[in-house]
């Protein structure tokens, strides 16, 4: 080894050792892709001297299956409200008691004691959203505040409608459309749901997740979608509108939990507390484009989100919102059969 | 006292033993890696689904019954699993059509390549392999950019005034076929080219000298001689096409399930891992049987030449 390489190697070793010495700890976050604000993470790292590593997943089922196998090395995950009870029941999460944390006072009252985590013993709200109907008003000018756009497509939109293939969301919407209750065991309702879906499908062009790009390019003129996605579409094309179906629409929330197998429990708790701070919650929203459950965060929200109809549910539509639940396995089984029937 | 012959025999035995011992680790790894995961899938197909994914360690034949039969959700009658059959046939049809399309395109391509001078052949071979440098997903999205309503094809046709509104190619079966044929074409060309390269073109000349028509030469001389390449190419295209996932989803719009989507559903939102496992094994068995039958038949009717 000549002196140059020796010097470089020594320099690198020195650098490595100083950076190790600088971070007081680590935190491994397991979250949905393209969902975690780098700015907020940087702020957290600087404040507590903690090095954060983020790993992506693409569905609740993937995350659950992986964490259930164990040995992931993750400290934190962000399951949806439908899955939080499963994580708790299967003993995958640690009781960190966020309800007693310093910043918990900021959590909006309606999210402070949710059914999926009574008393907030495990989870902290990360983001909230809705599932509604997005329509390009250049293609269709009529009323669009109904699941009818999807399930009884008006002529102008026939062959131009997309449906995001999220099984539970689609069947929830179809149940609402035929006038049933979510997770119903009523076979008559479920039969109507199946018939409605099967009859509606010929009017759809696709069942895809990639709505932002396809609505933007005009491949789709309408789609079922999440509100944050709809917001991005409208910012790109003002003719695109998000609508809250009057038959009832699904409300969801993703929540930060600490895993039982976490190695950095204290850092994870710091993070749970950190994101309940209004300014940080607004920072997260600014990136993922969804609302949060933190009172006072609106002050720090970016201007294009403050009054956005996609983010702030209008008072007139609010009564139609309903938090989506996880149905019992037997019912879930029927959902899968209807879904297979629909896509066969 | 050992004779020289015995010593030589012992040395040979030792040699054979050493060879086996030295290759044992590699053989073991290959064996475990090939059968281990499959065995797990097989075992899982006989278990009970867990409530929210995963499996319960409880024997159950339900998954295998569900592959073939379905209980109507509404009147509880048992019937043939029509949905599964429909999806299965769709996948088979797509694979067959893809194989035919790649053969029709690939055969002349391979012929063209094999009839170039030796130096330029390498260049053509190189060009054929270029698409392999890029990820399948990216190639599929490239096809999407070409055929979508605002894509290259439609834009050019609109600008030239040949059409007045974009042709809807994307999200149709045609789109899937275009994508599949594009993606799998090299897998057909390469084996055919390998056989074609060894073809003795003096036989072709001899055919012409004996007043055979071009078609006759193709049918009676070229095709029988490159048949092994055609068979290899067809298998190489047919099998992965049966399990194709990305191309049908991206270009077909995901409205109609392929086999791969059906299996994925069971491991994802459907949360029925045993059924997913049973479906996977069932597909494997069917492919294996079909393949054996195909290879056997192809071997039997093989034309003797010489």
From TrEMBL, chain A:
<keyword id="KW-0732">Signal</keyword>
<dbReference type="Pfam" id="PF13416">
    <property type="entry name" value="SBP_bac_8"/>
</dbReference>
<feature type="binding site">
    <location>
        <position position="325"/>
    </location>
    <ligand>
        <name>spermidine</name>
    </ligand>
</feature>
<dbReference type="InterPro" id="IPR006059">
    <property type="entry name" value="SBP"/>
</dbReference>
<protein>
    <recommendedName>
        <fullName>Putrescine-binding periplasmic protein</fullName>
    </recommendedName>
</protein>
<feature type="signal peptide">
    <location>
        <begin position="1"/>
        <end position="23"/>
    </location>
</feature>
<dbReference type="InterPro" id="IPR001188">
    <property type="entry name" value="Sperm_putr-bd"/>
</dbReference>
<dbReference type="GO" id="GO:0042597">
    <property type="term" value="C:periplasmic space"/>
</dbReference>
<dbReference type="GO" id="GO:0015846">
    <property type="term" value="P:polyamine transport"/>
</dbReference>
<keyword id="KW-0574">Periplasm</keyword>
<dbReference type="GO" id="GO:0019808">
    <property type="term" value="F:polyamine binding"/>
</dbReference>
<comment type="function">
    <text>Required for the activity of the bacterial periplasmic transport system of putrescine.</text>
</comment>
<keyword id="KW-0813">Transport</keyword>
<comment type="similarity">
    <text>Belongs to the bacterial solute-binding protein PotD/PotF family.</text>
</comment>
Automatic annotation (TrEMBL), chain B:
<keyword id="KW-1133">Transmembrane helix</keyword>
<dbReference type="InterPro" id="IPR000515">
    <property type="entry name" value="MetI-like"/>
</dbReference>
<dbReference type="InterPro" id="IPR035906">
    <property type="entry name" value="MetI-like_sf"/>
</dbReference>
<comment type="similarity">
    <text>Belongs to the binding-protein-dependent transport system permease family. CysTW subfamily.</text>
</comment>
<feature type="transmembrane region" description="Helical">
    <location>
        <begin position="20"/>
        <end position="47"/>
    </location>
</feature>
<keyword id="KW-1003">Cell membrane</keyword>
<keyword id="KW-0472">Membrane</keyword>
<feature type="transmembrane region" description="Helical">
    <location>
        <begin position="273"/>
        <end position="295"/>
    </location>
</feature>
<keyword id="KW-0813">Transport</keyword>
<dbReference type="GO" id="GO:0055085">
    <property type="term" value="P:transmembrane transport"/>
</dbReference>
<dbReference type="Pfam" id="PF00528">
    <property type="entry name" value="BPD_transp_1"/>
</dbReference>
<feature type="transmembrane region" description="Helical">
    <location>
        <begin position="94"/>
        <end position="112"/>
    </location>
</feature>
<dbReference type="GO" id="GO:0005886">
    <property type="term" value="C:plasma membrane"/>
</dbReference>
<protein>
    <submittedName>
        <fullName>Spermidine/putrescine transport system permease protein</fullName>
    </submittedName>
</protein>
<feature type="transmembrane region" description="Helical">
    <location>
        <begin position="124"/>
        <end position="147"/>
    </location>
</feature>
<feature type="transmembrane region" description="Helical">
    <location>
        <begin position="167"/>
        <end position="193"/>
    </location>
</feature>
<feature type="domain" description="ABC transmembrane type-1">
    <location>
        <begin position="88"/>
        <end position="296"/>
    </location>
</feature>
<keyword id="KW-0812">Transmembrane</keyword>
<feature type="transmembrane region" description="Helical">
    <location>
        <begin position="229"/>
        <end position="253"/>
    </location>
</feature>
């Amino acid at each position: 080894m000549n002196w140059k390489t020796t010097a470089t190697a020594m320099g690198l070793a020195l650098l490595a050792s100083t950076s190790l010495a600088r971070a007081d700890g680590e935190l491994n976050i397991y979250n949905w892709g393209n969902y975690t604000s780098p700015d907020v993470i940087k702020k957290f790292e600087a404040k507590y001297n903690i090095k954060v590593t983020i790993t992506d997943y693409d569905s609740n089922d993937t995350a659950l299956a992986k964490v259930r196998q164990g040995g992931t090395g993750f400290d934190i995950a962000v399951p949806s409200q439908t899955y939080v009870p499963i994580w708790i029941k299967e003993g995958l999460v640690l009781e960190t008691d966020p309800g007693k944390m310093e910043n918990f006072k900021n959590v909006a009252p309606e999210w402070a004691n949710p059914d999926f985590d009574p008393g907030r013993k495990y989870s902290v709200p990360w983001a909230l959203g809705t599932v509604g109907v997005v329509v390009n008003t250049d293609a269709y000018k009529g009323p669009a505040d109904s699941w009818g756009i999807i399930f009884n497509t008006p002529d102008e939109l026939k062959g131009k409608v997309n449906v995001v293939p999220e099984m539970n969301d689609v069947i929830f919407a179809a149940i609402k459309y035929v006038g049933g209750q979510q997770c119903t065991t009523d076979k008559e309702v479920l039969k109507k749901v199946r018939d409605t879906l099967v009859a509606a499908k010929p009017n759809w062009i696709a069942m895809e997740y990639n709505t932002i790009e396809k609505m933007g390019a005009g491949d789709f003129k309408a789609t079922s979608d999440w509100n944050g996605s709809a917001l991005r579409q409208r910012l790109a094309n003002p003719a695109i509108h998000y609508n809250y179906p009057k038959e009832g629409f699904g409300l969801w929330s993703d929540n930060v939990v600490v895993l039982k197998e976490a190695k950095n429990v204290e850092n994870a708790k710091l993070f749970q507390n950190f994101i309940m701070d209004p300014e940080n919650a607004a920072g997260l929203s600014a990136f993922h484009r969804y609302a949060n459950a933190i009172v006072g965060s609106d002050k720090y929200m970016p201007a294009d989100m403050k009054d956005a109809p996609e983010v702030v549910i209008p008072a007139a539509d609010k009564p139609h919102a309903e938090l989506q639940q996880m149905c019992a396995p037997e019912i879930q089984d029927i959902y899968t059969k209807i879904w297979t029937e629909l896509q066969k | 006292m050992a004779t020289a012959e015995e010593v030589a025999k012992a040395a040979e035995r030792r040699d054979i033993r050493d060879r086996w011992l030295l290759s044992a680790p590699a053989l073991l790894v290959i064996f475990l890696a090939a059968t281990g995961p499959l065995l797990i899938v097989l075992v899982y197909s006989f278990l009970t689904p867990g409530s929210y994914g995963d499996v319960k360690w409880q024997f159950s034949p339900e998954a295998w019954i569900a592959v073939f039969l379905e209980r109507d959700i509404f009147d509880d009658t048992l019937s043939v699993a029509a949905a599964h059959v429909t999806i299965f046939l769709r996948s088979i049809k797509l694979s067959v059509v893809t194989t035919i399309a790649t053969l029709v395109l690939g055969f002349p391509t391979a012929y063209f390549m094999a009839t170039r001078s030796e130096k330029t052949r390498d260049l053509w071979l190189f060009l054929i392999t270029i698409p392999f440098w890029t990820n399948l997903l990216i190639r599929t999205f490239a096809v999407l950019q070409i055929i979508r309503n605002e894509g290259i094809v439609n834009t050019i046709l609109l600008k030239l005034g040949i059409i007045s509104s974009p042709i809807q190619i994307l999200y149709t079966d045609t789109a899937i076929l275009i994508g599949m044929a594009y993606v799998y074409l090299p897998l057909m060309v390469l084996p055919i080219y390998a056989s074609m390269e060894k073809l003795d073109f003096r036989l072709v000349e001899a055919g012409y000298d004996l007043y055979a028509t071009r078609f006759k030469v193709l049918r009676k001389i070229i095709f029988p001689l490159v048949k092994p390449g055609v068979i290899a190419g067809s298998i190489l295209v047919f099998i992965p096409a049966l399990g194709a996932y990305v191309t049908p989803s991206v270009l077909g719009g995901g409205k109609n399930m392929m086999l791969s989507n059906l299996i994925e559903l069971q491991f994802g939102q459907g949360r029925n891992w045993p059924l997913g496992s049973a479906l996977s094994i069932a597909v494997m068995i069917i492919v294996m049987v079909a393949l054996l039958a195909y290879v056997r038949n192809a071997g039997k009717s093989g034309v003797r030449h010489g």
